[in-house]
Design goal:
binds 5'-O-[(L-methionyl)-sulphamoyl]adenosine, about 45% helix, single chain, 19 strands, about 15% strand, alpha/beta, about 525 residues, 4-stranded antiparallel β-sheet, 18 helices
């Protein structure tokens, strides 16, 4: 991909009925890695995240905690959800709350447009509703309950009974969009990814879409319909619109035109909302559909989707307090194939931290810089003529940059890590093989020693750039220690797609000392 394109990436907006767990953090990190990659590549990048604050689930939680819904959401956003972004080093450009005036006002405009265009009508709704999902359920979505709910039908995701709703509601004519959606999926095969998610969505729409109930009148914690204030808009209809209200819909058309359409990163449990309902809403309003919807897998604990309601939730800072945010980010992006489910275990995290980060990357960085200090007084030496072994390193780096960029373009984040890690492995092998410590003992090999350390330092420079989206803190330290100009993450450093060009560290550059990038963790899995 050439530099300069626009890349607008979003996370789902999170329900603030509870505090974040590592499943939420996983979605955030994935979107953030993509955003940082594109930013470091010079693409016009915008990352949006935020919170989903209306609806019955939040109203009930607030009431159960003796707070008004507004007090509750303010408390949770400030004490838990915004701090999460620091805990895992998220570089979002904007944070939208569905209680923001910019959101509420423009959701009303969107609704009014659809109403005026004849896409909304009144009807009666009777059916099952899962408050945990905030979703109307079909019988086929339900499973037999166990334990206290034995004998009842329960939501397959929350394992809790659904509630019977019978209300007068407003409906969105979603059925009108069955064929337009199928045509769109066909014309744009990458719209829903990965492939398995796309197939599931296409099969679902092929069965024909029903109209969607988009209002509730039995409670009032939500955005009132502009033409009938006795109803609030259905929380998902409200929430999905965040992606355009944050981008200027209804009040800054120029901003919207410069950002939209977006790439949406979502968990597979909320794929249909994003890949079916959302584009249908946009088509009805005459707004372009998203660029892409990517449904990633779940973090599993004990074989089940990790969740607070099932008491399998792990807080992100349980991990970052011990391992740091870089290790958190690296681990989840490398150990799990993006798009598939993955099991979390402390043992696996500890083992990879030690083998890949401390021994693999961290050690490579510290011993290379230590040798430049010891043998060349800390000044990066000029390389002599390159031998095939040195050229092999240059080639590995060039191939890795191209492969990793292509993988990011496909949103195959774990494949990008694998491609970059080929450099770590190649450099470690190169140093073992070239034995700079032995060359240093023979004055006749001074030029060879210079070439080897120049090559290794250039390789480290490429690694700092390529790994910066994954591990912003460690790569920052490494970049500073390398003494190269510019600041990583701000594009004053090397653009990521050019990380393979050689001789980027001016000869004579003084390197600094480097503290251990990934210190030994005494208590972990020992
Ligand atoms: N509020 C809605 C999204 C509205 S977007 C217009 C919502 N919120 S959520 O807080 O329940 O979930 C947010 C995201 O976290 C979803 O993408 C969901 O898939 C993800 N995860 C929640 N638990 C997860 C795991 N155990 N593993 C991976 N991701 C998980 O849905």
């Amino acid at each position: 991909m050439s530099a300069g394109k626009s890349f607008y990436v979003t996370t789902p907006i999170f329900y603030v009925n509870d505090v974040p767990h590592i499943g939420h953090a996983y979605t955030e990190v994935a979107a953030d890695v993509l955003a940082r990659w594109h930013r470091q590549a010079g693409d016009r990048t915008w990352m949006l995240t935020g919170t989903d604050e209306h609806g019955e689930k939040i109203l009930r939680t607030a009431t159960a905690n003796g707070a008004t819904p507004q007090e509750w959401v303010d408390r949770l956003v400030e004490s838990a959800w915004k701090p999460l972004l620091d805990t895992i080093d998220i570089s979002n450009d904007d944070f939208i709350r569905t209680t923001d005036a910019r959101h509420e006002d423009n959701v009303k405009k969107f609704l009014q447009n659809l109403y005026d265009a004849g896409f909304i009508y009144t009807g009666e709704y009777e059916g099952s509703y899962c408050v945990g999902c905030e979703e109307y359920k079909q019988d086929s979505d339900l499973v037999d309950g166990t334990g206290e709910f034995a004998g009842e039908k329960v939501c397959a995701i929350h394992s809790k009974p659904v509630e019977n709703l019978h209300e007068k509601n407003y409906f969105f004519r979603m059925s009108d969009f069955t064929q337009p959606l199928l045509d769109m999926y066909e014309a744009n095969p990458n719209f829903v990814q990965p492939e398995s998610a796309r197939n599931e969505v296409v099969q679902f729409v092929k069965q024909g879409l029903n109209d969607l109930s988009i209002s509730r009148s039995s409670f009032d914690w939500g955005i009132k319909l502009p033409w009938d204030e006795s109803h609030v808009v259905y929380v998902w209809f409200d929430a999905l619109l965040n992606y355009i209200t944050a981008a200027g819909y209804g009040y800054d058309e120029e901003k919207l035109a410069s950002l939209w359409p977006a790439t949406h990163i979502v968990g597979k449990d909320i794929l249909r909302f994003h890949a079916v309902i959302w584009p249908a809403m946009l088509m009805a309003a005459g707004v372009e559909v998203p660029h892409q919807v990517y449904g990633h897998g779940w973090l599993l604990v004990g074989g089940e989707k990790m969740s607070k309601s099932k008491l399998t939730g792990i807080a992100p800072n349980d991990i970052t307090d011990t391992f740091g945010s870089d290790a958190f980010r690296y681990y989840f992006m490398s150990a799990i194939s993006f798009g598939q489910d993955g099991s979390f275990s402390w043992e696996d995290l500890s083992a990879r931290y030690q083998a890949e980060l401390a021994n693999g990357f961290g050690n490579l960085a510290s011993r290379t810089l230590a040798m430049v200090s010891r043998y060349f007084d800390g000044v990066v030496p000029a390389a002599g003529e390159l031998t095939p072994s040195d050229k092999a390193i240059v080639d590995v780096v060039a191939a890795s940059v191209a492969e990793a960029d292509a993988a990011i373009e496909r949103l195959a984040i774990h494949e990008a890590v694998t491609s970059i890690w080929a450099i770590v492995d190649a450099l470690n092998g190169y140093i073992t093989e070239q034995e700079p410590w032995a060359l240093a003992k023979d004055p006749a090999q001074a030029e060879r020693l210079a070439t080897v350390l120049n090559t290794a330092t250039e390789g480290l420079r490429a690694l700092a750039v390529l790994l910066s989206p994954f591990m912003p803190q460690a790569t920052h330290k490494l970049w500073d220690a390398l003494g190269v100009e510019g600041s990583l993450g701000a594009l004053t450093a090397q653009p990521i797609r050019e990380a393979g060009s050689w001789n980027q560290i001016p000869v004579g550059t003084s390197v600094g000392t480097l503290e251990a990038l990934f210190p030994r963790i005494e208590s972990a899995a020992e």
